[in-house]
Specification:
The protein has 475 residues and is α/β, with parallel strands linked by helices. 47% of the residues lie in helices and 13% in strands. The termini are far apart. The structure holds NADP nicotinamide-adenine-dinucleotide phosphate. NADP nicotinamide-adenine-dinucleotide phosphate binds next to helix 1.
Length: 475
């Protein structure tokens, strides 16, 4: 029997990893049993092998919504997605065991485009209202769109980094990228912060009735998938600059805040009376992929050199250099399609299925090589995660797109760095987002449609400055 038809929103779907996620979802869903839905993990506790029997579902149709700021780019992406899918289906038809599923799926596939600028609250509200008018429910929201205002590379620091930390580390967590400081949005908020975080928070809050409808119809929660990065590190967090307007690492700062916000929302959703039956929050990262993200930072020649270095890193064993957007999409597509029973919530109690050691290494053991990239902070986080799990406390997980040296992708898991130290900050950030969301809801109701910039630079600006500067720590 077919499963409920998913209605999936992907932000920033027109290029890079967002496009890779769409392409991979379509390819997956057109299979009778989507490959990325297959369980990747196994329980280490005897008698709790629910994930071993977790069903892999089959879909006879879907709606994919491309949430992009440029109509032209989105329509081109749609055409490329359909052409790619049609090629895959045509190749599948030639196989002797072809069962016709892909043709049924293709006939019931809709790809929609809805314009949204994540850095403009009014645009996000309009987007959500358009979605509510057009679709009966939303099953998945993939919060992928992201931007950084790069200005270049600090070449001296790059050379120093390669000499001191080695090539692979330097192209995994590059500390030498230069970016604008203090870029503000039309709403008077930190622009990188609003684009990468707050725009998605508005979507999560404003689309809740559509997640609720999905949960009510099909007795399963909608899934919110937050796109983070390996670069989300505690060292880029500053309580007094939570909108990231003073820092010269606003991009990395947004990624660590995403870790904290998504983990807090997930924790809250699982509490008694939480929203876990309506919507579940998951944190993923794509590894390191070659995309448009660094346009403006390096010229074409260095862009090609960067790609070659990524392949060298992979050949030398870096599991994080997923390189292609399709490969980088695997953590998001697996989390979107796997049975909830097959998604682990513990590092110590699960192992990766591809791990054949006897006794098997746990996910905690597997995460150590990635955590070692972060020196003290990584090892401290590993110890913290182990202790918390042993005491039955919540440990937020981040699902990673990874690869072997031949480019064969799989999903890895790591704990959110220094969660215990930042648990209160995660609460603080969610409260800030919620406070701002409520302010913008009132402004939308008051100013009505069409006052895109008007409302923003007036009331919200004074409010947000009040939030940013006038609120005491942990208030
Ligand atoms: N590439 C990597 O190695 C890497 C590593 C870690 C995390 N990530 C994360 O992966 C996500 C996708 O990045 P990518 O590498 O695929 O980069 P990309 O190719 O530049 O894609 C970014 C997407 O986000 C969209 N976007 C940016 N600002 C927007 C806004 N204000 N409103 C609406 N859409 C907006 C872009 O639209 P336009 O085309 O209109 O600009 C584009 O579709 C980001 O969240 C990024 O932080 C990437």
């Amino acid at each position: 029997m077919s499963s409920p038809r998913p209605i999936i929103i992907v932000t920033g779907a027109n290029s890079g990893i967002g496009f890779g996620i769409c392409e991979r979802l379509l390819s997956d869903l057109s299979h009778t049993l989507p490959p990325d839905a297959k369980p990747q993990f196994k329980s280490l506790s005897p008698g709790t092998a629910a994930q071993d029997v977790a069903p892999t579902e089959s879909y006879d149709g879907a709606t994919l919504i491309l949430a992009c700021r440029s109509e032209k780019k989105a329509l081109e992406a749609k055409q490329r997605l359909l052409q790619g899918l049609d090629r895959r289906i045509a190749a599948g038809r030639r196989r002797a065991d072809y069962d016709g599923h892909a043709d049924v799926f293709r006939a019931n596939l809709k790809i929609g485009f809805h314009q949204v600028d994540m850095s403009d609250a009014h645009s996000v509200f309009q987007f959500c209202e358009e979605i509510a008018r057009t679709y009966p429910y939303v099953s998945h929201l993939v919060c992928n769109a992201g931007c950084a205002f790069w200005t270049g590379v600090d070449k001296l620091s790059a050379v120093r980094s390669i000499l001191n930390r080695g090539l692979i580390w330097s192209i995994t967590l590059p500390p030498f990228k230069l970016q604008h400081t203090g870029k503000m949005s039309v709403d008077g908020l930190g622009c990188t912060w609003q684009s990468n975080i707050f725009g998605h928070y508005i979507m999560y809050r404003h689309l809740k009735p559509l997640f609720t409808e999905y949960a009510a119809r099909y007795s399963r929660p909608a899934r919110l998938i937050w796109q983070s990065s390996l670069e989300g590190q505690p060292c880029w967090y500053d309580h007094d600059d939570w909108q990231l307007v003073k820092t010269d690492h606003s991009y990395e700062g947004t990624k660590f805040q995403i870790d904290l916000i998504a983990s807090k929302l997930n924790e809250r959703s699982l509490l008694p009376g939480g929203e876990g039956h309506v919507v579940r929050h998951f944190l993923v990262h794509p590894g390191i992929a070659h995309s448009n993200m660094t346009n403006g930072m390096v010229y074409a020649f260095f862009d090609t050199l960067k790609l070659i270095l990524f392949y060298i890193a992979r050949w030398f064993g870096s599991p994080n250099h997923t390189i292609t957007p399709y490969g980088a999409a695997i953590s998001a597509t697996h989390i979107a399609l796997a049975s909830l029973l097959a998604i682990p919530s513990s590092l110590l109690a699960f192992a990766h299925r591809k791990n054949t050691d006897d006794p098997p290494r746990s996910l905690w053991d597997d995460s150590l090589s990635t955590l070692s990239l972060y020196a003290d902070c990584g090892m401290e986080s590993a110890a913290e995660a182990r202790d918390r799990e042993q005491h039955g406390q919540y440990v937020p997980l981040k699902f990673s797109s990874q690869t072997d040296s031949h480019g064969e992708g799989y999903v890895g898991v790591m704990p959110v760095l220094q969660w215990a130290k930042h648990a209160e900050e995660s609460e603080f950030l969610v409260e800030k987002c919620e406070g701002l969301y409520q302010t913008f809801v009132k402004l939308e109701a008051k100013d009505g449609k069409g006052k895109v910039n008007g409302h923003a630079n007036g009331h919200a600006n004074s409010h947000t400055n009040g939030h940013a500067n006038g609120t005491s720590r942990h208030s």
